């Protein structure tokens, strides 16, 4: 199976390519320098030339706060880029997997969102990701849309790396404690995505590590497992204003994964432990 992966230079795409290579697939990973997905002609030409059996579309404009003031670029990448790729996939009859986000939901209530809940994004990034979902659904009769959340991978920046960096100079940190979600390790996610793409169990899925926590609880567990003494003060969203509004409830139900026969991801604590070990080995 030949798989084209966008976002190869980011967190998730990098691990998807690595997992695919481990399984013996022909993986073609691209960053924006290899293929700028906002360039319609390039997308068609490139996809036709590579002629993959499947496209796993991990590329996105992911700067959630910056997007509020950089709307055009965010739209071009997340909406138009997805449209061009989905159209190209249709043309060559390749399977198409679009990676989406918990930020398509408004985060109201406390119940986990299910795949059939209606999205209602509260920020511009989430809005563009929802538009992209709708485009994929309108262009293709068969597709995978996989909503993920709070991603951490070795390749790129994420919350864990930020916490570890801040802990080098501070012994006390204020971290938001009223946004609840599921941290998700890109290594675990990549296994699931490659399991999925080999099936014809199309549809919308939620896929994250198991369990829920707040950012403050996530930070506490990072320092606990890394054996770093830092006091984490849990603060409210209102006490930590950001440019973009974020959903408070990012809980997503993964029951559909089980119903469809896919293996659920391990707990976020288990994943975090493995990730920290990998970081330590990387530093050594
Ligand atoms: N990070 C999270 O917490 C999170 C949460 C929920 C959902 N998601 C979704 O998960 C997916 C993967 O996220 P991630 O954290 O792995 O992303 P990331 O690390 O921020 O990487 C983004 C990737 O998109 C590529 N990209 C950006 N603009 C592009 C363009 N014009 N043409 C081609 N490629 C372009 C980047 O390429 P270059 O670096 O080469 O420019 C990079 O490879 C995205 O769809 C994101 O929306 C992420």
Walkthrough of the structure:
The chain has 284 residues and is an alpha/beta fold. The chain has one domain (2-157, 184-210, 251-266): Rossmann fold (3-Layer(aba) Sandwich). The chain has 9 helices and 12 strands. The protein has helices at 11-22, 40-50, 71-92, 124-139, 159-167, 186-197, 215-225, 255-259, 268-283; strands at residues 2-6, 26-30, 54-57, 95-101, 144-148, 151-152, 172-176, 180-181, 184-185, 203-206, 213-214, 231-235. The strands form 4 sheets. It has a 6-stranded parallel β-sheet, with helices on both faces. The protein has a two-stranded parallel sheet with strand order 6-9. It is globular and about 55 Å long. The two termini are 35 Å apart. Bound molecules: NADP nicotinamide-adenine-dinucleotide phosphate (NAP). Residues 6-13, 31-33, 35-38, 58-62, 77, 81, 99, 101, 129, 148-151, 156 line the site of NADP nicotinamide-adenine-dinucleotide phosphate (NAP). NADP nicotinamide-adenine-dinucleotide phosphate binds next to helix 1, helix 3 and strand 4.
**Sheet with the most strands: spatial strand order:** 2-1-3-4-5-10
The major pleated sheet works out as: 6 strands, parallel
- Low-confidence parts lasting 5 or more residues at pLDDT below 50? none
CATH homologous superfamily title: NAD(P)-binding Rossmann-like Domain
For the record, what CATH class applies?
Alpha Beta
Tell me the total number of β-strands. Answer: 12
Give the count of helical stretches.
9
